[in-house]
Structures are given as C-alpha cells and as structure tokens.
Amino acid sequence: MSPQQRYIVFDVETPNGANNRISAIGITVIENGQIGDCWYTLVNPETSFDFFNIRLTGITPEMTREAPKFPEVWKRIEPLLNSGIPVAHNAVFDLGVLKKCLQAYGLCWKAEVPYLCTVQMGRKLLPGISHRLNMLCEYYGIALNHHQADSDSRACAEILLRYLENGAAPERFIRTFCFGYAEAETAGPEKKERVRPPVTVRLAGEDELERINMLRKQVNDIHVSGKPDVFKPGFGEQLRDHIYTIWNDPEQDIAVADMNGRICGFAVLHHVFRPENPFMKEREFLDIDEFCVDAGCRRQGIATAMIDFIREYAKEKGLHRIELNMWEFNREALAFYEAAGFQTYRRYMEMLI
Questions:
Q1: 93 in Cβ contact with 147 (< 8 Å)
Q2: Which residue among 47, 266, 330, 334 has its CA within the 20 to 30 Å range from the CA of 172?
Q3: Phi, psi for 188 (deg, rounded to 5)
Q4: Does residue 299 share a domain with residue 211?
C-alpha cells in the first residue's frame, strides 16, 4: 500500500450514551499525500440527548431538528467511505457507532471493512506519550476544536500525514472491522435475514467512561462485601477519577462489551513489561487489571465473548501470556476463569493474629 493511497478520515459525534445514533459527522479526504475535500453535517438522530453529550459536543436537540436524518446522510457518505481506506482516531468507536446506526435503520454496508486507526498507529510509532486526540494535537501543534466532528476529522488527518511523512508504512497497521452481516435461513426456502450478534466487544470511547465507572462501582461493592477489612465502602472521587488515569496511559486500553447499545461489561488491559533482575527473567504479558460484567447481564455469554476478544487483542500485540489476579472469596469468578483456561500459578496468603 502506497502512502499516496486515498484515505477517508472521519469522526462521529453521538447524542447519548447508547452510541447507536449520530448527531454529527465530519469527513476529511487525504489524496496524494495532501488534505483535499472536507465535508460536515449535523444529523437528526431521532432520539433523546444526554446532558453529558450536549456538554461534550455542544450539539443540542434544537440544532439537529431540521438536519438530515441518517438514511439521507448515508446516501452521501457511503460512496465517500467506499472511495478509500476509512481512518479514525480510536476507529473501533466510530466504526462501532456507524455499525449500530446502520442496524438501527435496517441499512447494510460491507460485511468487513479494512481501516486504519491513528491511536493504534501512534502507540507503535510514538510509545510513551498520551494518544488522546487533544494531546497529540498539542504535541504536533495542530489546531483543534475538540469534539467537533469536522475539526476532529481534520486533526486526525493531520496526524496521519505526520506519521506517513515520518516513514510509517500504513500496510503494517491495516485492521479489519466486521459489520457482522451473516445469513440465516428463515421460514421460506429462499428468504434470508441478517443475524446480529447479541454482544459486540470493542475498545471503549472516551464518552463511555462514566458508564464504565458505574460498573467499577459494582466491582468495588463486591470487594467491600467480600473483604471489608481491606476495602473501603463507597466510590469516592479518587476512585472515579482513576478511570481517566487509565484512559491517558498509553500502555493501557479499556475493552467494553456492548449489547444492544448498552455497555454491559468492561476490562482494563495493561501491557506489562518487566525487565530481567537477579531473581527473575524478563517478562512481557497482558494483565487484565479490572474485569466486570453488569450484575443484570450475567450468564448470557458476555464474559466469554470478552475473554475471546482479550485473547485476540493480546495476539495482535505479539503477546503470548495473559495474567490476572483475583481475591479468594470470589469463588464464582474463580470458577469462570478456570473454565476459560486460566491456571493458578501463585498465591498470596495471610495469617490473622
């Protein structure tokens, strides 16, 4: 693949935490190593707005009332997206929103789409720095009006050009996003319909962190109940804010399980490197630092789907070992992890006196 390839850099904004509708989309085209056409529109999402999203994007229901609806917008953007390699910053989020929006309106695109993600590229090309869009723009001196789809897409395009100008080989970073259009037999011999997987596991978007915090509180409550002599009750500001520390750490990712537009599980994935020391060999592995499935969504295959995703995520990073630690009182979790293939290789023990 040549760096002169045509790239379609896009960004979407959403009206609420379901992330299954679009309130704005911006597209910036890169052709022959230069930024070309730019396109932007508000979208009438035909659904409710959350205060968080209004505050984040500045887009209100009144602003989108006369805007085109998604099926009309799709007629315009589908040929654009088909004309090059789609690119986004944290692309699995934007592609995930697009997938759910297409499903909501009964529209189809391709079964699989090759794409580039400037977050994934940056973590390989610029290790050790934050890869949040605003931080990268500050690093490169790129103008940004954050969470405005036109500005975000152009900034992402500028970042991609920086990577290409510095010799990045884009073919190394191409991934494939599955839109999950499977064929299944129905009553008629020739009639077929799409089967939609009930759970999608992907990397989280920044606007999903507060929902993830709600699940983290469930984890904390379990720990307080099981080990009250160790864990403090409540879920204070310091614990809530820690999710943003994780988000800003280039060595950590947050995976989420999405079921019908609802975040029903999450896992914090930490790429750990331990250098050799006098006692131990060098070690590199993926640590599952936090893991939770919503109490109301368990026994539906969500945790298994998350482990499958984590296994593939580790393989993509060239890692051959996944580790986690857990508390002995959580016997249900222990049974699940053992069934998933984890084995105990170390224990912490205590003596109360």
A1: no
A2: 266
A3: -80, 150
A4: yes
Considering the domain architecture, whether residues 211 and 333 belong to the same structural domain is answered as: yes
Same domain, 228 and 330: yes
Assigned domain for 352 exists: no
In a domain, 62, yes or no: yes
The amino acid that residue 128 corresponds to is G
Model's pTM, two decimal places?
0.58
All residue ranges of the chain with pLDDT < 50 are 182-197
- Are 231 and 177 in the same domain? no
Range of the domain at 322: 200-340
Distance CA 119, CA 123 (A): 6
Residue pair 38/19 in contact by the 8 Å Cβ criterion: no
Rounded Cα distance between 208 and 261, Å, is 11
**pLDDT tens column, 240-266:** 999 999 998 888 999 999 887 789 999
Q: What is the pLDDT of residues 222-243, one digit of tens each?
A: 999 999 999 988 888 889 999 9
CATH number for the domain harbouring residue 323: 3.40.630.30
Residues 336 and 211 in one domain: yes
84 close to 8: Cβ distance less than 8 angstroms: yes
At 195 the pLDDT is 42
Q: Which of 90, 123, 91 is nearest to 249 (CA)?
A: 123
Kindly state whether residues 205 and 160 are assigned to the same domain: no
Q: Do 261 and 331 fall into the same domain?
A: yes
